[in-house]
Structures are given as structure tokens and as C-alpha cells.
């Protein structure tokens, strides 16, 4: 006979290992967690509350089982879903794991199932944000050290880590996540992701400011006036990323449109060119001659 | 001249090149050297025109010996001239790169003295980057037509991608607008790059990766101007397909003509609107060729030589081939799924995966990312269409056009005209 599953709410330390211990706990005592509370959140729950102590060994066992009894793919989904900003992510992941124990290796084919779909959507959002930030992150040089800051919705640092540590393996850098108060630090091939409550960034020196200005000038020059399209840009770089991007910060603070950002119709830009030379300059599609 | 001014002049002269991708190659950074590349490419920002900025796109110099009348850099044009020294350019690239502003360098150049000399200068700048700075990021270089093949070969060993611009969609237009440029002079380096790439790939199979010379490992691309000359979409698409098949190009870029010349050979600038929607439709068709297994002759033919501005090419094809539909999502193969408007590469793959677990219904399809508003007219789920749906070709056409309209709205200018709308790419 199948046992009765009791509904509970778990308090745990908020770590991934802690969560996996909860998972182990729930299947051991046939409990359905209806809510999870991390260390900071004091949730008042309708369900009997239980505190689960993190147990590394039990967590590791669940982690291994996910790969051996389900699949590598399912385990990736679980561990990455834990990094997302999905509301009540623990419950959603637990639902998925319960399905995974039932279905086995094929669980990741169940794309049309709500439990799988929720995780896939959340993880997709995480991957997308991480990919964008590989490009949108900006570093500033201060006496040879690179400083960067981001405010992502998801915890992307673990996903950005291999990319930046590899690409900038010759550099010493720090990348601070304002949302989750943690920082990725890297020096000579060694790295760590550490919790940092508050971070003071150093003032840019003259040389750094020069490069920021050069970059700004490049950015302003590269746009084609006749194709000005702020909506398209907004769709491609959502405004929430602008605050940390050297070239867009100014516009966010309401700086007047810069020289290159003209909203003139093409004919007006043509007149503008005419004033410059004896003949109207006609840009070719490519820059150099063939 | 200050570095700031040089950067401005040489960026301004380079900005009309549409190609700014950093894709096609996965290369990890070597220990002790900065820089890597990723096959998917990576956009670092988007300029005010909404286009992606991924590479530091500049000319080495805009001093040109040629006098192509439609080019800003032609020697008779009174414009500011500048040139980077290889050292300046390498330092700038490195400093931008380590701040994560860019994915690499896009280096083009006007022809200074002659093509050989220009290519040698480019080689000097690139080898400084690669060898002295150990730079492992992405480099896209323009091959200069007319340069010695040996030099182009050396350039390709330093760059990840090479490109030669085809400029205009036909030899006739080219000889009319750019009499100095011959079709052959463009196609010759293209063939050279194709063969060089193939040879180095063969070599890579025989030798350990470190020893093999890698020539333009991310392949080559090209670009052409749309709307300056009278070719129709069908001609352009056939040309594109030929370039993909015969020259093994990775990408063909289209660039809507910007009216800034009074030459009688070009469209009059007064009231001319750059054909951005047409450019958009061509890119859509280009995607259909590369990822959806379409053939150019399926999309356009003699009776339909141009794309419909109101409706995307895939929907147009579907409406002309209603006999192909409905497609049963629970049994159709990948190719058939790809033909359905509203089903893309990702959702088609997901359908194949999800079918292994259970039969799909309309609710399920929605979760897989299928755009049912479009797809519903062309599919069945377990033999059933959406309840209460009536499919008559003219009704479907009306409905699909209605669906497309809001996508075109943001680009709607004051005057109403078909070719003024469209999204830039």
C-alpha cells in the first residue's frame, strides 16, 4: 500500500546542499514540502514547520542519484534551477524531482508537462541572462585590477565564472553581483565566489577615464543616423542592464542625446553631409574599396 | 592627430559594414594568453540604430588611391583622413578587450598605395596582436581584392574570419557604379579563401591541433547593398544561395541603401526611404535557406519576383502550398514541421523530443513555444484542428496579415508607404 504523504514546510540554510538534504528528508519520511524558508525569510506557514540540518553526505547521495537513477541532463536542470529567481523555486524543483524518481531517465522528454516546463522556462531565463551578461558586463581598470559589477535577476556568477576566468586568465578581476551580494574573484588561475555584503568601488583614474571616453566615442560613432531605432535597441539591451554599462549609463541619467544620436530623417543627414565637403559624401555599404 | 579623433574618423568610415558577428568558432583561451571565442558569438552592446556591436569595427586607414564614386573614402572626397599605426590599434584593441567592451577586432582598410601594401599593413597590425600580445579573441579581417594571394593567405592565418564584399547584386550594377571593381576581382579571393579554409581543415584532421595552420577557421562572409540598383528579390536570393553553395560562405549580409549621393546613377536622395523592410524580408528568407532547408526557387519565382511586404516569406510559401498542410504534429518529420509557420527550429526540435514522452495536444504545443496563432491553420493534433476554426485561404491570409501588422507598427513613419517600414537587423 502506498503511504500517506504529509504536507510540511521546511526551514533550511538556503544552500544547495541544504535543499538536497530536504529532498532526502522528504522522501525518507513521505513528506510533501508545501513551502521552504531560507535563513533570512521568516515565513509563517499553514503547514507544520520542520528545520532540516544540512548534511553534506546525504546531499551528495541525492546529487549522485539524480545522475545515476535519472540522468545527467535532469541533474543539470535541477542544479541550475536552484540558481534562478523563479518564485518558490524549491517547491518547483521538488515537484520535478518527484516526477523524475517516478519516470526515470526519460523525464527530460516531458517538455509538455507543467513540472518540467516550469523548470525549463526558469532555466532558459537564467541561461539567457548569463549569455547577455557575457557581453554586457563592463570592467574598469584600477591599478592593474579589473572591477566589474552587475545586477542580474538570477544568480549568474557560477555560469559566468568559467567564461571570464578562462578568457581573462591573465588578469586579476572582481565581478560583484549587487542583487545577491556575492563576488567572483580571480587571480592567477584561482577563483572563488564569495558573499560580500557591501562593496566600495574605487574611483577611475585618468587613464581609465580616457579609455572609457574612447569607448563612448566609438559607440556614438558606430550608429548609422538614418537607421536610428531606439525601440529596437531597447529590445536588444533592456534598460535594466544600462546602469552598469559604460556607454549607456549616461543616457539613463538623462544626459542629452550625444552628437551622433540624431533623429533627423535621412534627407536631413544628407544636407548635413553636404555642408562638410564640396560634394555630398556617400557612404558605401562597406568602408574600404573592394 | 589625437587617438580620439583617429578613432572617430576611422569608425565613421567603417560603420556601413553590416557584418559585426563574432560567430562560427569555439576557441578556448590558452593559459597565459588573453582571449577566447565562442561559436554562438556574443553581442557586447547595441548602438542607437539597434544593431549589435560585438567587434571594434574600424579601418586601418581611410586614405584611398581609388575613386569609387559611391564611397566616402574615395580620393576626390574632401573628408578627414587618418591612419592607425599598428601599435596604436593593437593597444586599443587589447585595452577595450580586457574591459569586456568587445569580442575582438574587425579590421578593414581603404587601399593605401596599392592592395599589397595595404594587406601588409593589416598583417603587421594583426601579427602584433596575435604574437606580441598573445591575443586569442576574435579577428575579422577584410581581404583586399587585388592583393597577392600569398598575402591574403598570411592574413587568413591571423584572422578568424575573412570577408570580401560583393557590393552590388549584379555584375552590371557593379560596373555601372564602381567601374574600378570587377566581379572577378571579388570572386577570386572568395574562391581562394574557400579553398584555403578547406585545405586547413583537411590538414587539421591529419596533424595535432597545435601544429596545423588554421586559415580563417570561422569561414568567410560577404555583404551587398539593397535598393540602390534595380535587381529584384528573386535575383538577390538566388545569388545568395549560390554564394552559400558554391563559395561555402558562412553569412551573406544585406544592407539597405542609405541615400546620400546626388549621382544620377543612384536613387535620388529627396524623399528616398532606405528599404529597411525589404532588408528584413531578405534576412528572413536567408534564414529559411540556412536553417529551414528551403530552396530559393521555392520562395520566389517568375510570377512572384519580390517578397510581400505585408507577410513574411514562410507564411507566403505556406499559403501558396495549402496542399502540403495540415501537418500532423504527432507524426510529422522534422522537415515537415519546419515548414509550418509558427514553428521554428527550436520548437520543432522540442516537438520531436516531447513526442517521445506523450502525445501532444494544443496546450502542450503552447508550452513548447509554438506560436499557435499562426500555426493553428496548418497543423492537426491527433487528427483534430482547433475547435471552431475554419480554414479558407483568403481568410487565413487576412488573419496572418493582421497578426503581422503590430510587428511592423513601431517602424511606421509619418508617410504611409510599403517600403518605409521594417526592422533593421
Number of strands of chain B: 10
Number of domains of chain B: 2
Task: Give the N-terminus to C-terminus distance of chain B in angstroms.
Answer: 34 Å
Name given to the CATH architecture of the largest domain in chain B: Alpha-Beta Barrel
- Strands of the widest sheet of chain A, in order across it, are 4-5-6-7-8
Radius of gyration of chain A: 25 Å
Look at the structure and give the CATH class of the largest domain in chain B: Alpha Beta
Describe the 3D structure:
The complex is a heterodimer of chains A (290) and B (425). Chain A has 290 residues and is α/β, with parallel strands linked by helices. Chain A is built from 10 helices and 8 strands. Chain A has helices spanning 16-28, 56-70, 72-81, 89-103, 114-136, 157-167, 206-222, 230-236, 249-252, 266-276; strands at residues 6-11, 31-37, 49-51, 139-142, 145-150, 172-177, 182-187, 190-195. In chain A, 39% of the residues are buried. With 425 residues, chain B is of the alpha/beta class. Chain B has 2 domains: 3-223, TIM Barrel, CATH 3.20.20; 313-420, no CATH class. Chain B has a 6-stranded parallel sheet. In chain B, helix 2 (86-98) crosses helix 3 (115-132). The two termini of chain B are 34 Å apart. Classes of the chains: A alpha/beta (290), B alpha/beta (425). Chains A and B meet through helix 5, strand 4, helix 6, helix 7 and helix 8 of A and helix 1, strand 1, strand 2, strand 3 and helix 2 of B.
Amino acid at each position: 500500500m502506498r503511504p500517506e504523504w504529509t504536507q510540511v514546510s521546511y526551514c533550511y540554510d538556503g544552500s544547495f546542499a541544504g535543499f538536497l538534504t530536504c529532498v532526502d528528508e522528504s522522501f525518507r519520511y513521505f513528506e510533501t514540502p508545501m513551502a521552504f524558508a531560507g535563513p533570512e525569510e521568516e515565513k509563517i506557514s499553514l503547514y507544520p514547520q520542520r528545520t532540516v540540518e544540512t548534511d553534506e553526505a546525504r546531499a551528495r547521495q541525492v546529487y549522485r542519484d539524480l545522475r545515476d537513477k535519472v540522468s545527467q541532463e535532469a541533474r543539470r536542470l535541477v542544479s541550475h534551477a536552484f540558481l534562478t529567481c523563479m518564485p518558490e523555486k524549491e517547491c518547483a524543483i521538488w515537484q520535478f524531482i518527484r516526477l523524475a524518481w517516478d519516470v526515470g531517465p526519460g523525464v527530460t522528454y516531458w517538455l509538455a508537462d507543467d513540472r518540467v516546463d516550469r523548470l525549463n522556462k526558469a532555466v532558459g531565463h537564467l541561461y539567457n541572462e548569463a549569455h547577455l551578461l557575457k557581453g554586457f558586463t563592463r570592467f574598469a581598470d584600477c591599478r592593474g585590477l579589473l572591477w566589474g559589477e552587475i545586477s542580474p535577476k538570477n544568480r549568474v556568477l557560477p555560469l559566468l565564472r568559467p567564461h571570464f576566468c578562462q578568457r581573462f586568465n591573465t588578469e586579476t578581476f572582481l565581478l560583484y553581483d549587487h542583487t545577491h551580494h556575492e563576488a567572483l574573484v580571480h587571480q592567477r588561475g584561482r577563483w572563488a565566489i564569495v558573499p560580500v555584503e557591501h562593496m566600495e568601488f574605487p574611483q577611475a583614474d585618468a587613464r581609465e577615464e580616457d579609455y572609457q571616453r574612447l569607448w563612448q566615442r566609438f559607440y556614438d560613432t558606430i550608429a548609422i543616423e538614418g537607421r536610428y531605432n531606439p525601440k529596437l535597441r531597447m529590445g536588444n539591451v533592456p534598460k535594466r542592464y544600462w546602469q552598469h554599462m559604460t556607454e549607456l549609463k549616461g543616457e539613463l541619467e538623462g544626459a542629452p542625446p550625444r552628437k551622433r544620436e540624431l533623429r533627423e530623417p535621412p534627407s536631413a543627414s544628407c544636407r548635413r553631409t553636404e555642408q562638410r565637403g564640396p560634394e555630398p559624401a556617400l557612404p558605401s555599404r562597406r568602408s574600404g574599396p573592394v | 592627430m589625437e587617438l580620439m579623433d583617429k578613432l572617430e574618423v576611422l569608425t565613421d568610415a567603417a560603420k556601413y559594414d553590416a557584418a559585426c558577428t563574432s560567430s562560427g568558432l569555439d576557441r578556448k583561451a590558452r593559459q597565459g594568453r588573453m582571449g577566447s571565442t565562442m561559436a554562438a558569438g556574443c553581442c557586447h552592446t547595441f548602438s542607437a540604430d539597434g544593431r549589435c556591436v560585438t567587434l571594434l569595427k574600424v579601418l586601418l586607414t581611410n586614405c584611398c588611391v581609388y575613386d569609387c564614386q559611391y564611397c566616402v573614402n574615395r580620393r576626390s572626397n574632401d573628408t578627414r583622413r587618418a591612419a592607425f599605426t599598428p601599435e596604436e590599434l593593437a593597444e586599443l584593441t587589447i585595452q577595450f578587450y580586457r574591459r569586456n567592451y568587445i569580442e575582438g577586432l574587425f579590421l578593414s582598410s581603404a587601399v593605401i598605395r596599392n592592395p599589397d601594401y595595404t594587406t601588409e599593413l593589416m598583417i603587421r597590425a594583426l601579427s602584433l596582436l596575435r604574437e606580441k600580445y598573445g591575443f586569442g579573441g576574435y579577428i575579422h579581417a577584410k581581404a583586399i581584392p587585388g592583393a597577392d594571394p600569398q598575402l591574403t593567405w598570411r592574413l587568413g592565418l591571423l584572422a578568424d574570419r575573412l570577408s570580401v564584399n560583393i557590393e552590388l547584386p549584379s555584375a552590371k550594377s557593379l560596373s555601372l557604379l564602381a567601374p574600378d571593381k570587377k566581379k572577378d576581382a571579388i570572386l577570386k579571393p572568395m574562391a581562394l579563401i574557400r579553398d584555403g579554409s578547406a585545405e586547413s581543415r583537411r590538414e587539421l584532421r591529419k596533424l595535432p591541433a597545435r601544429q596545423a595552420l588554421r586559415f580563417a577557421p570561422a569561414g568567410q562572409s560577404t555583404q551587398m547593398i539593397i535598393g540602390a540598383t534595380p535587381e529584384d528579390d528573386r535575383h538577390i536570393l538566388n545569388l545568395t544561395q549560390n554564394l552559400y553553395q558554391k563559395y561555402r560562405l558562412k553569412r551573406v549580409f544585406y544592407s539597405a541603401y542609405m541615400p546620400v549621393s546626388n549621382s544620377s546613377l543612384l536613387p535620388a536622395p529627396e524623399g528616398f526611404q532606405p528599404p529597411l523592410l525589404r532588408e528584413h524580408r531578405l534576412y528572413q528568407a536567408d534564414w529559411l535557406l540556412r536553417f529551414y532547408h528551403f530552396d530559393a526557387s521555392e520562395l520566389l519565382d517568375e510570377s512572384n519576383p519580390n517578397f510581400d511586404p505585408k507577410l513574411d516569406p514562410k507564411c507566403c510559401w505556406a499559403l501558396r502550398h495549402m496542399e502540403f498542410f495540415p501537418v500532423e504534429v504527432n507524426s510529422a518529420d522534422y522537415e515537415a514541421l519546419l515548414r509550418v509557420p509558427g514553428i521554428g527550429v527550436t520548437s520543432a526540435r522540442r516537438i520531436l523530443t516531447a513526442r517521445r514522452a506523450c502525445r501532444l495536444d494544443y496546450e502542450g504545443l503552447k508550452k513548447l513555444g509554438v506560436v499557435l496563432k499562426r500555426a493553428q491553420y496548418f497543423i492537426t493534433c491527433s487528427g483534430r484542428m482547433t475547435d471552431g476554426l475554419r480554414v479558407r485561404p483568403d481568410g487565413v491570409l487576412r488573419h496572418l496579415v493582421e497578426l503581422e501588422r503590430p510587428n511592423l507598427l513601431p517602424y511606421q513613419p509619418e508617410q504611409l508607404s510599403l517600403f518605409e517600414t521594417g526592422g533593421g537587423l
